[in-house]
Structure formats: C-alpha cells, structure tokens
Known about the structure:
Elements: H1 2-21, E1 28-34, H2 39-51, E2 58-64, H3 69-82, E3 86-89, H4 94-106, E4 111-114, E5 124-128, H5 130-144, E6 149-155, H6 161-174, E7 180-186, H7 191-205, H8 207-211, E8 215-218, H9 221-229, E9 238-240, H10 251-256, E10 263-264, H11 270-281, E11 289-292, E12 296-297, H12 302-333, H13 337-393, H14 407-421, H15 430-437, H16 441-452, H17 456-474, H18 479-485, H19 491-502
Parallel strand pairs: 1-2, 1-3, 3-4, 4-5, 5-11, 6-7, 6-8, 8-9
Antiparallel strand pairs: 10-12
Helix pairs in contact: 1-13, 2-11, 3-4, 5-6, 7-9, 13-14, 13-17
Keywords: Membrane, Signal, Transcription, Transcription regulation, Transmembrane, Transmembrane helix
Main location: other
Transmembrane segments: 338-358
Amino acid sequence: MNKSLAIITAFLACFLLCCCQGKEGKRYVIGVSQCSEDIWRDKLNEELKTATFPEDEVSLQFASADDNDTLQIRQIEQFIKEGVDLLVISPNQAHAITPVVNKAMRKGIPVILFDRRTDGAYTAFIGANNVEIGRQMGDFVARQTGHRGSVVEIMGLKGSSPAADRHRGFMQSIAKYPGIKLVSLQGDWTKASGKRAILDLKRRQGADFCATIDYVFAQNDRMAMGALEAGVLGKRTKLCGVDALPGPEGGMRLVADSVLSASYIYPTRGDLVLKLALNILKHRPYSKENLLQSALVTPDKAPLMRMQADEMNMQQQRIQDLHKKLDLFFVRYHHQKVYLLFTVIILILLVGIFIYVYRMAVYRHRMTEKAITEKLQHYMQLNEQRNRMERLAQLPAAESADNVLDADTKFMNRIFDCIIKNLSDSAFSVELLAAQLGMSRVQLYRKVKTITDSSPVEIIRITRLQQADRLLRQGGMNVSEVSYEVGFSSPSYFSKCYKEHFGHQPTASGTHAE
C-alpha cells in the first residue's frame, strides 16, 4: 500500500508543480461577425466552439447582424475598439462592409472572410466555390428538364457575393441550352423571401404560368421551401436548393424525403476556420485563398450522406457534452492554486483511504474464503469418513454412519455427493444441484448460507478447485486434463481461478511456481 500511495503522491505532486509554476500562454481573442442568424450559421458557430476545446489559448466572441449592414458595421467597430487579435467576418453585403474591414486591416487586425467576400483587402478567405456550385446546379437542372422547359431561379440577398457568384455560375450553364426559359427572382436568403418571390411572380405572370414551371432553383434550401409553401406551383414542378444541412429540418433530409429533388452541400467547417486563424496568429504558413470541398446531394445519395452527417453530429454533441463537464471542473480551479493544492491533498488522502479499504476488502474476502474452504474441507472429510465406514461395514448409506451425523453434516454430504458425481460436467449448475436435492434454488441458497456462510455457487467452485488440487498432487494428469476433469470448460479460466484461490499457478507435479 505504501509503495502505491507513494507513486500516486509523486505523480500528483508533479502535476501540482506544473500547474503552480507553469506560465499561462497568451490568450488570443477572436471576434466572429456573422451577417445573420440561421441553422447554417449556428452550425458554424458550434463547430468553431468545438474546435477551441483543445486550444486553451483561444477565446471566441460572437456577434450577429441580423441581415443589417449598419448593425454589422457597429459590431465590427466594437471588436476593433476592444482590440481583438483576429476577426472572422461573413459580410452581409460586400460593398457596405468593405470600409470597416479595411479599417481593421489598417489597425493591424488580421481579417478572415468566411463564405462571403468584400471589395477591399483581407488576410485570407475560406469558403466554397459559389460559381462552381451555381454551374453544377445549372447542369443538374438542365439534365433533369431534358435541356428545355421553364426554370425559375430565386437569388439570395442582393449585393452579397454568394448570390452573385451562384447566379453567375448558374447562368453559365443554362445559357448553353436555348430550349430553357429562365426567370430570375430576387430573395434575401430567408424562407419568407422565397415565398414572396413566387407570389410576386404569380401576380405578374398569372397562376397558369406558375403551374407550368418545370424547375425552381433557389440559392438556398430555405428559399426553396418558401417557394413550395406559396402553394401556386404545379404538381410536376420540382425544386432544388443549396446548403444540404443535416438534421430533421435540413436540406439533406428534404432530398431524402423527395421534397427537394436535389441540394448542394455548402460546408461550414468551423474546425478549418479556426485552424486558419491560429496559423495566421502564430505566424505559421497559410493560404490566402482556401476553397472548401462540396458536393451535389441527390435522392440516391442522400440517405447514406444523411447517416454520415447524423453520426458526425452525434459525435460532436458527445464531445460538447464532455467538454461542458470538463469545463465546469477546470474553470473553477484554473486560477485557484491554493484551492487546487488543498484539493490535491484531499485527493491523495482519499486515494490512500481507497487503497487501504480496497486491500482490506481483498484481505477480508480471502480470509472469508479461507474460512469457507476450511469449513468445506471439514464437511468433505466427514463425507470421506462416512464413505470409508460404509465400505467397511458394507451397509446402505441410510443404515451406516449417517445415523451418527448431525442434520447439517448429512445435508452437506448430500451436496458433496451430487457435486462429486457431476464433477466433470461443466454445465452442472446451482439449478441442477437444487433439482437433484429436491429443493428450489432459493431454499438451497438459504440453507447453505445458514450452514456455511457461503453460497452454492462458491461451494461448487471451491469443491472443484479442491478436487483439482488433489488430482494435481496425485500426479498422472496435466493441468488441462485436470481442468476438464473437475468441470472447467477452459484451462486458462481454470488456471485463473486456481491462482486466485491457492495463490499460485497450478502444476501437474504438485509443486507450484510463485
């Protein structure tokens, strides 16, 4: 016990020394300016938080502009005033946000543009290729319509770079097919704007025109669902969008359920955003342009992709739950060195007490098992004496030595007779023993517990081990043969039980190895 306690004490002392003497690393404050609040940006924010778990030196501050240029400018100004170390900005509108981004750059604050761009300077950009997304969605719609028909495009917020880029890519594809008639409508990324755009189209072109639309491409899934909710599209009209978020209301499920005919994954990858930020802050190599991988989601791919996304979300949630539990502990003690010292001392004492209690429990268990074994050996010796007397007297058991034995000894003799008789049967159990004695399992347990302070299971096990020890000492059989002879189905398990009981490994010679 002293050796184990000394090792634990030394380990904890070293840990405490590191905690008390180590200097805290610099904490980087990163301001995150989101242009709006939605499930896509919520997902990004959660990924950013998760990515900071192993990075104790990073602190995140979030702000959302709710699609308001003026509010976003004010929020970025506040980040600059507070002196954050780096800014991650998703601009609401490129032109409006450019001046304040330029101001941050002049102040020496690195700026990462995520998802959307501005017209001015920046340190790095990370996001998907929106032109390519628009181009691939255009090719998909063209294939689905047979390169002809009526197509409606609902664009995102006017002035935002993803809306402009996706429209440009979509037009590059559709322009190759003169049989497709395209109508472009203006939205603002919200579900309501998708519904409003279709209803405005109905007022201008009439209900009949809306009913004959072949395809609606909305630049995100929310606007696509808004267009569907307008209730004026024909039954044959198909819809597709962009984002393909996982979750019960995400585009991936909408495609899997055939509500949308397709969507396009627009990745968030908060982990890569934070990695880029740390590379910039720590003056490590980084790329100015960082394009994220994305993919088209169709009904044949959606179920598998949804399963993968759900599994990733579940794992992320587990990580977040675990971090919350750990954070509650570490935050309390991070700056409380004296309290931590007190806690470590108490921990050492508790560990010492636990080791002491554990060893005492093991000792009491071994002593109890020893007492049980001695008691069982006593009954086994009486049983052997009875058998010898019966053989000498050549009398039936009922008329021999049993007449001079007490009731408990007679009962135990019956138990040993049954066990010895079925010794080699590895399937012999307490239930079978009780059945052969004409008792229920509960009755057998209570009576055996009263007589021996042990259980029938222990009696069977100890009897097997005692008989095994006797056979090993007699010689003529190896360990495996003995283990099967006394009812163990596995020699390795027999050796384990034998060592636990006798304190040494079984050997056929009758000697033992320590």
